[in-house]
């Protein structure tokens, strides 16, 4: 059994209290590029293009940032997220790997120990399970294991969740596994702007970050301002104000919640939509403040109901906001079955109808 013991001061300990293992992050200043025109303040980008731009900007700002994974260099990734990076930064900084997810994460850990900031890609959500041991046993624990002496600035990009009619192992909701593993940050963008900024923050973090990209949002477009930082990791955003029910969700289901809010308004119900953005660290203050305003809460996520992230949120809301609640906290989720074939996907995934059913149940509580 390995035991952590006190080390002599000569090995780097100080009498000062240690900083939290999950530390806040800031962005490095971009490198000076004399003579080049300033980029436009905002450009319309898809989420794919926003992530590509974030990777490009992070690699340009820091020579220690490396991008690698299956087909990320020559092909530019299955979804072309990494297109052009190998040509711009060379084969030593953006390179293809064998089809070996455990090795990909193991290499990332070794590179981080040597001072690099690796950004490995796991090609699809269901392919992350072979890397589970490396992520849980080593990536998540290295900073704690070394008393914070060795940072682990690894950002694991994983195209995630369903909604694109994919085959088995290509539409998994893996967030609960990572959230149950202390030492990992877990973020899920819902918009191109958040995809850009959350990825920049993640790459700049000294902690390992699991960056779950909702595939169904890859082709969503919006203006992205790469000069005006968005709220950091650990901050939720209220996407729509309301007074009757708080809907808490993230990733690809944020537009679903907003559509449901439009339909609910026709029935006289006012929904407040909270986009979590960051699942760990969780901005529970924003969640609690919203629930205190509305008195009702529905949590929505794609994964199965049992032990999904909605269960943790429902428990915490019930514990900490009990006297503010007018109704039980409800969950609109996927079913407790394996992810179905593509032709049944729309039946399996939680949608507007499943969410509005929960809203109605919350509203009619005596």
UniProtKB/TrEMBL annotation:
Keywords for this protein: Oxidoreductase
Entry cofactors: thiamine diphosphate
Catalytic activity, EC: 1.2.4.4
CDD domains: TPP_PYR_E1-PDHc-beta_like
Transketolase-like pyrimidine-binding domain span: 45-220
Keyword Iron-sulfur attached: no
Pfam families: Transket_pyr, Transketolase_C
InterPro entries: THDP-binding, Transketo_C/PFOR_II, Transketolase-like_Pyr-bd, Transketolase_C
Region feature Disordered, mapped onto this chain: 1-38
SMART domains: Transket_pyr
Name of the protein described by the UniProt record: 3-methyl-2-oxobutanoate dehydrogenase (2-methylpropanoyl-transferring)
Source organism of the structure: Mycolicibacterium setense
Taxonomic classification: Bacteria, Bacillati, Actinomycetota, Actinomycetes, Mycobacteriales
């Amino acid at each position: 059994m390995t035991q952590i013991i006190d080390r002599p001061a000569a090995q780097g300990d100080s009498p000062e209290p240690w900083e939290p293992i999950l530390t806040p992050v800031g962005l490095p200043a971009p490198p000076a590029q004399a003579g080049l025109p300033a980029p436009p303040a905002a450009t319309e980008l898809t989420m794919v293009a926003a992530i590509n731009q974030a990777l490009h900007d992070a690699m340009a700002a820091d020579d220690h940032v490396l991008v690698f994974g299956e087909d990320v260099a020559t092909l530019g990734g299955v979804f072309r997220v990494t297109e052009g990076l190998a040509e711009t930064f060379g084969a030593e900084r953006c390179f293809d790997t064998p089809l070996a997810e455990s090795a990909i994460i193991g290499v990332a850990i070794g590179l981080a120990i040597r001072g690099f900031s690796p950004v490995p890609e796991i090609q699809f959500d269901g392919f992350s399970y072979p890397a589970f041991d490396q992520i849980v046993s080593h990536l998540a624990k290295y900073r704690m294991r070394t008393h914070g002496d060795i940072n682990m600035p690894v950002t694991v990009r994983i195209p995630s969740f369903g909604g694109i009619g994919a085959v088995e192992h290509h539409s998994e909701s893996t967030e609960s596994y990572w959230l149950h593993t202390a030492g990992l940050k877990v973020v899920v963008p819902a918009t191109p702007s958040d995809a850009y900024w959350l990825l920049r923050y993640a790459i700049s973090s000294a902690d390992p970050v699991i960056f779950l990209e909702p595939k169904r949002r890859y082709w969503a477009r919006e203006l992205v301002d790469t000069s005006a930082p968005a709220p950091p990791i650990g901050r939720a955003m209220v996407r729509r104000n309301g007074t009757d029910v708080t809907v808490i969700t993230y990733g690809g289901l944020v537009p679903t919640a907003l559509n449901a809010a439009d339909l609910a308004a026709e029935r006289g119900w006012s929904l407040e939509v909270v986009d979590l953005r960051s699942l760990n660290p969780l901005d529970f203050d924003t969640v609690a403040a919203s629930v205190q305003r509305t008195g009702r809460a529905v949590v929505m996520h794609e994964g199965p109901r049992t032990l999904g992230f909605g269960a943790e949120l429902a428990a915490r809301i019930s514990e900490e906001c009990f006297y503010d609640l007018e109704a039980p906290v409800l969950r609109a989720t996927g079913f407790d079955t394996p992810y179905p074939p593509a032709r049944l996907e729309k039946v399996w995934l939680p949608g507007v109808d499943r969410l509005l059913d929960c809203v109605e149940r919350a509203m009619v509580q005596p």
